Amino acid sequence: MLSLFEDDKSSEAEAKPRPSATESAKTDKAPDEKPSKPAASSGIPSPDPAQTARLIRALRTVEPGLVAKESRAVDRARNVCSDLKSGKDTATVQNNAKLRYEGGTVPSLTNDQAADIVTAVKSSFCD
Known about the structure:
- With 127 residues, this protein is an all-alpha fold.
- It has six helices and no strands.
């Protein structure tokens, strides 16, 4: 009868590492997720609060409708900055800015306004 108890103990001992293996698998997934999130957002600079205020003021000067939704205006500015940082030529950056900001409260923008948007992005946070 002692051997039965010993077998039961050994089967319990074998069962204990299995949950810890599952726990370690969960632990392995968590570190993979953490680095990918910062890496995805680190490519495009984000303005700090003071820079955001300067950006919003500058965009409002170009066309008040550009900042009807400030968070959207900042997201679009970050994309303009991404174009600048990736080395796209001036005409492409300006055209992309125009396309990003047109629509909704601003049905159309001139090329000069697009150039002013790019200048606003550069001068506020994307140097």
